Amino acid sequence: MPGEQLQVLSALDSAKTQLYHFTAIVIAGMGFFTDAYDLFAISLVTKLLGRIYYHVEGSPKPGTLPPSVNSSVTGVALVGTLCGQLFFGWLGDKMGRKKVYGMTLALMVVCSFASGLSFGNEAKGVMATLCFFRFWLGFGIGGDYPLSATIMSEYANKKTRGAFIAAVFAMQGFGILASGVVALIVSASFDHAFNEPSYATNPVLSTAPQSDYIWRIILMFGAIPAALTYYWRMKMPETARYTALVAKNAKQAAQDMARVLQVEIAAEEQKVERITANKRNSFGLFSKEFLRRHGLHLLGTTSTWFLLDIAFYSQNLFQKDVFTAIGWIPAAAKMSATGEVYKVAKAQTLIALCSTVPGYWFTVAFIDIIGRFAIQLMGFFFMTVFMFALAIPYHHWTLHENRLGFVVMYSLTFFFANFGPNATTFVVPAEIFPARLRSTCHGISAAAGKAGAIVGAYGFLYASQSTDPHKTDKGYPTGIGIRYSLFVLGIINFLGMAFTFLVPEPNGRSLEELSGENDGDSKDTEVPPA
After folding, report:
1. Rounded distance, CA 165 to CA 368, Å?
2. Helices marked H in 281-354
């Protein structure tokens, strides 16, 4: 049987839900609010950037970003995020969660603000500096993934740990919603002030010079929520699990948690020395022992997150094209620049309000009741079903009288992504690995997800193009079309369902029991399969 647990960790595991839990959720969650705002706001302004900086005199259609520029603007933050997840995940295990946590937030604040200050008024200069700042913004965002998940898992009690970690991640839904709302307010304000005609009416006046402020304001707004939480992040104590099991400072861990929990906690320095000196608590990431204990777990968390994000990010990044195809957003020539921002933002806001946000909070409500494994398997299953249900009778959904049904089906895929693998792939890696490798392994899992997001973001910009060369966006080669893109996404979701069987079920167990760090016989510390 596993040995007796440290008193400080037992106190955390059995603590009743109290104010500090909710404080931690808000502090960590505001980082994810900012993450989602910054990563999804860019999809609201790419068409505006094309109109402003790539207008062609005499063209029957408004200017659009060239394929390479569009891919860079939308994807460079994802590349930065991948790099940040690997780097800050590793650094969080080396320096401690708290020290690194402040670095990531400061980087997010500075680069989010700087994204709106891109230099010059020529296309090349503006796009180059925008991509530069968005890469480093993504780098900071990347660090927030492993650190927020690890901090919340190490603070939480074992009874409601899944809900607390999922609640941090669920703040993404509000961030996506906020990006749409801010874009609606800003574009409506500018439209009211300047009353631009449609492009077909007057190509030049349809994009007022002042429109250049719209995308800058929308992107810069992302700095505000992150800046507001910086002070409180710096006030959070280091997690007891890092302090005791990694830094090996039992006295400090007991003092910190006694203050947080407001109870007496013994330091148990000898027990910490005994646990940390045990050989089974010292194997590294690239050791045979890690491969034996956690190799399949890491394969499960990386593969499912990779497959999920291909589907999730491709849907988000080409959803405005889906809405155009079904007639929710008029042809670009029929709108002014601000009108187009408003229409795209309205569509994204409705999807977030009706499916994205509810899906996240359904996970929060049920994750500790039915478990991570069941939610993830169910989510992938229904995403597969709805993707094929959209793809097979695709022509039916494009007919004007059926467009509302298409939006409902499309929304349900988002609902089951969020009441499903989009949340659980974030939660599980923060629970099943040892404390000294927890942040690193979460960072690796998250980076695999962002690799999938890059495939989705770059690949589906091209894949979703029409098979008819006369109907493709300017500068793009023909693709497989939206219908066959939906088929591909359905297959990807099915593979995600299959790889879910490699992921263990951590529900109701302590982190040390899951990772085998308790002071006891190592043969009883294996994590059973789900």
Report:
1. 11
2. 288-325, 337-351
Two structure tokens written together for 65:
């970003």
| Alpha-carbon span 109 to 91, nearest angstrom | 20
Q: State the pLDDT at residue 530.
A: 45
Residue 380 contacts residue 497 (beta carbons within 8 Å) = yes
Q: How far is CA 244 from CA 252, 261, 275, 281, in A?
A: 8, 16, 10, 13
- Tell me the two tokens of residue 503: 């992921």
Question: What pLDDT does residue 20 have?
Answer: 81
Q: First vs last Cα of the chain: how many Å apart?
A: 20
Using the predicted structure, report yes or no on whether residue 299 has a pLDDT greater than 70: yes
Q: What are the structure tokens assigned to 268, written together?
A: 């148990």
Say if residues 80 and 42 touch (Cβ distance below 8 Å): no
Q: Which two tokens stand for residue 278?
A: 């045990």
pTM summary value? 0.88
Closest CA to 245 of 279, 281, 270: 281
- pLDDT at residue number 522: 41
DSSP 8-state symbol, 156 = S
**DSSP of 370-410:** H-HHHHHHHHHHHHHHHHHHHHTTHHHHHSGGGHHHHHHHH
Query: Where do the structural domains in the chain lie, given as residue ranges?
Result: 7-274+287-515
- Give yes or no for a contact between 158 and 509, defined as CB atoms under 8 angstroms apart: yes
- State the Cα angle at 22 between 16 and 26, rounded to 5°: 160
Tell me which CATH code domain 7-274+287-515 carries.
Answer: 1.20.1250.20
More confident position, 352 or 227:
227
How many other β-carbons are positioned within 10 Å of the β-carbon of residue 216? 17
Separation of alpha carbons 54 and 62, rounded Å: 8
DSSP 331: -
For 326, the token pair is: 């079904």
